[in-house]
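Exam revision sheet. Question 4 asks you to relate a sequence to its structure. Input first:
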Amino acid sequence: MKIVAHRGKTNQALENTIEAFLAAARDHQFEGIECDVYSTIDHEFVIHHDHHLSRLANDDRLIMDLTYKELENINLKGIDGNLYKIPHLVEFLNICKNHQKRPIIEIKKLHDISLLHNLLTLLDDYMDLNPMIISFDLNYLKYLRTLSNIDLYILTTEITGQLMYDCRVNEINFYINKESVTKDLVDVLKNKGFMVGVFTVNDHDTRVLCEKLKVDYLTTDQS
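Answer key, structure tokens:
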């Protein structure tokens, strides 16, 4: 079971920041590092979890309403009192490359699905890292599959027969919520040939269960 740092190593620095990614990159337990991606109004890819800036910057503007330059000038404040910046996806990828960590890229929302072409072009220089793209939006993943054989995982809390069919046809694997993990479900997915990841696991018992069930990836906030 491979361990993924959720938004970086967040007990060391603010989530989804260069500092958190560097801390995760230096931690040998992590096989990969996860980040969250939006497009800016000028079609750059930036890393932030929320669609707005209110929680971390006390700013009511939306990520997707701003240019990359505008976002560069915004300070995020961590609970440690330190100030942080919103990274560009390239900065994250360079950290992964320098430390040989697998990039786990969650696509939150883009202005247009055609921007996935731009994303794949950007990833061309990092394919030796075997990047994984994950999303709650099945349409993004299905579109990506028409363009690339890159590893794709659907984030989900509920698995239906129709979803399994769509994912099997499009060669999309499953990244399931920890609340959904049962032996029966993991067995069904494995027997159908899917890889299985679980998010976001911070308790010992669920981690042990996932290891026992031979889950492929486990995303955690813990070091």
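Marking note for examiners. The CA atoms of residues 161 and 167 lie 10 Å apart.
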